[in-house]
Amino acid sequence: VHQSKLDFFCKLGYGKQDICKVLENLGQEALEDDVLKELIRMGSKPQALESQAQPSPLKLVARGSCSTSPGSKWLGEDESDSSDHLRPIVIDGSNVAMSHGNKEVFSCWGIQLAVDWFRERGHTYIKVFVPLWRKEPPRQDSPIADQHILEELEKQSILVYTPSRKVKGKRVVCYDDRYIVKVAYEKDGVIVSNDHYRDLQNENPEWKWFIEQRLLMYSFVSNRFMPPDDPLGRHGPTLNNFLSKQPVLPEPKWQPCPYGKKCTYGNKCKFYHPERPHQAQLSVADELRAKIKVPLSLGKEEEQRNHSP
């Protein structure tokens, strides 16, 4: 009976010493409820509760790292939520929506497709800029499809409305392209748009370089968001390197010599020769010097041997 009660309260997390003291005071035939009351009166706590009551030690977190567990924040929160190896993404919402709507309808579903594509890649900082007047009811001259998507993205802190207002019945709209380029430049991110922003390139030389190097164009193929695999051309970086803060450089590939074994350049040839795997890259003068030093060193060794007793 003593052992069974001891095992029962040990499973609850109480210490053996406290349990034995209570059983000695109340006797071996005491009821479990009485033993439990006495343990509580003594101030004994289960080990699980004691570990919870103790304050967790403070942890030092490196600057720029995310202190919260993954998935605890909405994707696209500000500042430190961007991952270490992926660039922030700034999407031109109007350009993407009109492209998906075939330049006839402002299709909000196209914005959702683009956001989902970058989410699946692991990007955490995603911002979409759309003019504020797109919240108004659609009209015949500016139709909007799936307008509820804008509200959902706004709740997730992904969508940002650029300001606009009406003055004497006329709409005054702020230039949303300037917001897009400015935020992407400050965050050192990527602009997702098919617009070239030529007016902003002429306005600021730093923006000009940034737009040329960080503009990611795209296409929609059967409701599928598809950016190119070579955003900066055939000889530029791959899409993975383009979207990464620390691009992985490919291994250098030597171009084979067009003359092959008939090449007369020797060691001066800058192309790859598979028949010369261990060829030293020496100039002609260095090669002649190396050939001269070998027999001289051999002659000195023979002289030393002859003069030695």
Structure description:
With 309 residues, this protein is α/β, with parallel strands linked by helices. It has 3 domains: 42 residues; 155 residues, 3-Layer(aba) Sandwich (Rossmann fold); 38 residues, no CATH class. Helix content is 40%, strand content 11%. It is built from 12 helices and 11 strands. The strands form 4 sheets. The protein has a 5-stranded parallel beta sheet with strand order 5-3-1-8-9, with helices on both faces. The protein has a two-stranded parallel sheet with strand order 2-4. A hairpin with a 4-residue loop joins strand 10 and strand 11. Helix 1 crosses helix 2 and helix 2 crosses helix 3. 21% of the residues are buried. One of its GO terms (cellular component) is cytoplasmic ribonucleoprotein granule. InterPro entries: Rege-1_UBA-like, RNase_Zc3h12_NYN, ZC3H12/N4BP1_RNase_Reg, Znf_CCCH. Pfam families: RNase_Zc3h12a, UBA_6. Keywords: Endonuclease, Hydrolase, Magnesium, Metal-binding, Nuclease, Zinc, Zinc-finger.
